[in-house]
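Researcher: Structure prediction, please.
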Amino acid sequence: NSETATLDYATFAELKKYAHKVCYLGDIDATGIKEMYSKALQLVDLYIIELPKWITKTTYRSKPRKDLTDWGNLVHDKKKPGKVLAAFDKLVKTALPARFWDEKYKGKKFNGYDFNNEAAFQFLKFQGFYRLEEKNAKDSFSFVRVVDNIVSRQEPHHISDFPYQWLKEKNYPIALRNSIIRSAQLAEKKMSKLEAYQPDFKDSSANHQLLFFNNNVWNVTAEEIKVLRYDSNNLTTQVWEDKIIPQSPNYSSSPFFKTEWQNGKWDIKILNTENHFFNFLINSSRVNWRELGNDPFLKRRDEINTIDPEKYLAQLTEIEKDYQEYHEKTRFNIAEPGLDPELIQEQKEHLLSKIYIIGYLLHTHKMPSRAWQVHAMDHRISANGRSNGGSGKTVAFNTCLRSLRPATKFVDGKDMDPQKDSFIYDGVTEDTDLVLIDDLNPKYPLTKFFAKVTSDFVVNPKGQTAYTLEYNESPKIITTSNYGIPQVDGST
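Model: Predicted structure follows.
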């Protein structure tokens, strides 16, 4: 029947009256495996026949093969008609239940329990425990648990303790629990026999990006955003638990802005100013705010021509009132009325640049034609050696962007030395999305980053052998600075 059909305990008990082993064979697509493992854990005496994974590497009508018919067609040999029967007989004989213990009898008298190692590893697989091959791990592998596409790292003692805790939670007999406690069959060395698993962590392509939040997953494309559940069969990508963005947002389909290409320039229209972060981006892009929002009021203040304290205070109060009213009226207005069109365009391009850069950094896909390092600096450029600041770089990148990309390697750039930076990328792996170098030392040459931006990324970890991340699996780099860029050449 359909893999989603229920097999209740009464039906299962009836079947057990007639058969030595009651077996369940499900499809080996995402839905089939999920239902198969679920049934195995509900009915621990149900034997599970899992078809070999190799059949999924072949296709029928452009779809991966997944069920018993597919398996039979691939195994059947016209010249050896008994081949498929013999092969199926092996599948039945090697089927195992989730029950990881066997009851012993002397005659008809119960004589305790035996730990079933093979069934125990099957049980742990049904619960999502696997061995993960990792080239940078201490033993070239580590242990993980996969639940609803979320992958979490596990220590060996977490796994060895799990069967006992499961029995305790299900209120199985004390004698059975004691036998599991006394057993040394789940020692750390034996954990290497857990089934190997290779998650698919690819969360983006040139045309989409997945964002993993606490409550759901967003599939972002240029045309739309689809909201998915973690247990959805439409979600075929896994995510590390510590890479989930610690937010539970609701998706609004109402846009906050609209962009257009007009007369050889990009234009942006603000449609909504209810989002605090977007308002912050707008205000930090209003680099010409002094033209109408500050200088005219300073000029009026300087032109007060009276020595009468009361008149002076009255005029000053009026100027301050006009100042506040003007700012209230033009809040979050990137194109305030009366401002020179060229200055308005400059502000719009500031805002567009920020939006584009944030999108670029949230998109983990890497294209060789867009191999860029993001460098954030102040709009107000002073002579080299003089530091500015206060333009919002830390809020934009260190605070907000890192909250949306938890897998960010943070580096304090103030102390970076070109001669002593061997280990600054310690901890960077293929799971790292961004490297944020904050407040870069003004004497540190930007050219030191170029090879990592455009080609492979070499990591020299402390106490371990250096390794190389290929371009497609390496993180994007952000640097921030309160200084101007020294020695600007063509490649920079």
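Model: The mean pLDDT is 90.
Researcher: Thanks, that helps.
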